[in-house]
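Render this sequence as a predicted structure.
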Amino acid sequence: MRDFIAMMRNQGRVEDIESPCSTVYEAPRMSSRTDKILFFHDLDGHRGVMNLLGDRRSLAAALGVEERDLVRHLAAATYSGRVVDAGRLQGGVPADLSRLPIMKHFPGDAGRYFTSGIVFSRYGGVENASIHRMMVLDDHRVVARLVEGRHTHTLLKAALARGEKLPIAVTVGTHPLVTFAACTRVPEGKELAYAAELMGGELPVRVCENGVRVPDAEIVLEGYIGAEKAAEGPFVDITGTYDPVRQQPVIEFTRMYCKEDPIFHGILPAGDEHKLLMGAPYEPRIYRSVGEVTTVKDVLLTKGGAGYLHAVVQIRKNTEGDAKNAIMAAFAAHTSLKHVVVVDEEGAGLVA
């Protein structure tokens, strides 16, 4: 992550905030007013960053491609990167969340939330990595929103069915392409391989004491998810509205590993980085699906649809009915879509 920030600073895309800034409302409010990367030098006494992938230009820069080639590049992925064992993770201390600048974003939030934490899990020979929001309960426990039926929830069910806890590790401050990979629906167990592919073909990982593998990160929190549940929420979701309160699984952290003077990464709920990480991973999925029925040129999930619910699909019309088929393919690829517009190579709308 530090190398990416340095690269973006050289491009004039980083705004350094030297003055003291509060983790309660102030830093989130500042990030809502710009898509530039904000680097906080005194975030309640710590270093922090927001808007790391605040726009498509930043994602393209991370990948080393032109913005116009972004979706086509991602659609060509084969999930075949090489994950390299770099040994065991060293230097851990007992977990203490009070040492981290965890933010409270909006007055109606139930508490302080991790919003960029990637939950790495491993059970029964299956690995998974995905972002889950996590509300702080005390200095070593959080309650995490685990969507039912998704891989982390499935692995937890498998562990609990055998009377065991699910070993996990949460990373904060990974390279943005690792974060992007963790936000992408990939074949089971392929998140690390996909991250390696996006990073150029190879990704070193280290093994925690509980057996979970993690990539390079500013902060690693090691622990377990058991049967305990607690109230999670209210919390502002992608549409800028509050999610309801739910009973969700509790994560208990046992150890933490921090780089020297770590940089804490926060994502503003319903902000542009949140929208990009929620929606952009679906664009190559739609691109491939539409490509099976007609000649697809590009796909965009628009900010007007919270970066997730409205799609514009650009095609080259070859036969009558192509627009209708493209719409149907887009809905099949991303079932949360509410609205699809098909345009031609000139950007003009096509009649379905």
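Summary. The first helix runs from residue 2 to 10. The first strand starts at residue 14 and ends at 17.
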